[in-house]
Amino acid sequence: MRATELATAENDDALDLIALGRRVRHLRKKQGMTLDDLAEKVGTAPSQLSLLENGKREPKLSQLQQLGRSLGVGMEHLMGAEPPSKRAGLEIELEKTQRGPLYAALGLPTVRISNRLPMDVLESLVALQRELKRRLEEQAATPEEARRANTELREEMKSRNNYYPEIEAQAAELLRAVGYTSGPLGHHIAARIAEHLGFSIRFVPNLPNSTRSVTDQRNKIIYLTQGRSRDWDSRSVLLQALGHHVLGHTEPSDYSDFLRQRVYTNYFAAALLMPEKPAVDFLSTAKSAKELAIEDLRDAFAVSYESAAHRFTNLATEHLGITCHFQKVHESGIIHKAYENDGVSFPADHSGAIEGQTICREWTSRQVFEVKDKFRSFNQYTDTPSGTFWCTARTEGHSSGVYSLSIGVPFEHAKWFRGKDTQFRSVSRCPEDPTCCRVPPAQLADVWDGQAWPATRANTHLLAAMPEGAFPGVDTTEVYRFLQDHSPS
């Protein structure tokens, strides 16, 4: 393996740290070397080598090369995908399981993996984990499959820093074609884009209840609702509908495909409403002045705060060198949407899904609900087990309730933002410490444990299967009847 290939492998997460660590340990012991012996050969501290062998430290290229020479193996052997022995394979599988979301959700103590762990115990532990995972997946209904699809898509977004240059390029080409120069994208420009693509627009009062727009692809007509909704901008709805055409989408084959198409068309609409070059120029100027603020991006391009926050996540890492996270949290504390590439630890279930989980009470996205000043953004530092994060948040009302919208960054990036001098600070011990907010304080529990019986507001939709069809939740018959009634042909 050439050095350039190895560097690429390190950068694209191809390097399996746990497998590498176990292989190094196996080769070291096979040659009768102690940690001290190998550490001396490699020129590092035994404690650092121990972290590497336990998959908790990523080695540099030069250190990998030294390890290969010291252990007498080539880089291909050192980086091999196959475990060096059956036991090593089981140890790797158990280690990965214990670091995964399923094991964390169970709240079980971690088993220390060492040579003293009997082989039969190791085999039993791995078999138990496999069976538990199998049973959970077997019991998973369509909603669980949807959550897994959402988790996979979120991982894709994270791997790309939520930046899709191919969609940016298509949006930029369209804007050039219709003569857009600068400033907010008005309704007349949005209509011109539709006309350029061969579509006409019709506003009607009676769209099918389950839809925000309906596209007649035969006659190239896009139907939008005539009433004004506080939940969405008609420009965005129109551009999303056009996005399916520009991006070449076909009827979704499954929920994963449906979800991915929706994310891509939302991105496409945002790239038109807040074009890449002017948006990056605006944000770069604000960063230079150490005055970054989501509300300024909102105001500059006449979009919603949520749209501006999403767009910031598209551009922040790629163009500003800032990692970040986004949350949309219901007033009940439930996560509705989330994204991160800055290492923040969101609560997750066994499948890795975070939507539907309850966020810590100490986080900015929960604290903002208690703030009386709703006109300005609320800023707070939060110390967490994953580090200290600065977050800015505000609340917005929707037909389904009040939500907080927050953007957060690691402490070292806070210096670029307006509000960095906030005096608000909190400490979150979630998810490691359940006494942080998942269990009641001892004083309250002593008084009320066994004496409270709340009448739960049942969210029966959580128990229902995901709607069937290529477009989940849409009544196809209703859509066809609508098109039949409105079709000019």
Short characterization:
The protein has 489 residues and is an alpha+beta fold.
Key terms for this structure?
single chain; 489 residues; alpha+beta; six-stranded mixed β-sheet; 20 helices; 46% helix; 12% strand
What can you see in these coordinates?
Helices cover 46% and strands 12% of the residues. The chain contains 20 helices and 9 strands. The chain has helices at residues 3-11, 17-30, 35-42, 46-53, 61-71, 75-78, 86-98, 101-106, 119-139, 142-159, 165-177, 187-196, 234-246, 255-273, 276-288, 294-301, 305-320, 364-367, 442-448, 476-486, and strands at 200-204, 213-216, 221-225, 325-330, 335-340, 378-384, 387-398, 401-410, 425-427. The protein has a 6-stranded mixed β-sheet. It has a 3-stranded mixed β-sheet with strand order 1-3-2, with helices on one face. The protein starts with a helix and ends with a helix. The model is unreliable at 1-14 and 460-466 (pLDDT under 50).
Q: Report the radius of gyration as a whole number of Å.
A: 26 Å
- Cα(first) to Cα(last) distance is 63 Å
Kindly state the percentage of residues in helix: 40-55%
Largest sheet: 6 strands, mixed
- The arrangement of helices and strands along the chain is HHHHHHHHHHHHEEEHHHHHEEHEEEEHH
- Residue windows where pLDDT falls under 50 for at least 5 positions: 1-14, 460-466
As a percent range, the share of strand residues is: 5-15%
Shape: globular
Structural class: alpha+beta
Please state the average pLDDT score.
86
> Biggest sheet: strands side by side, in what order?
5-4-8-7-6-9
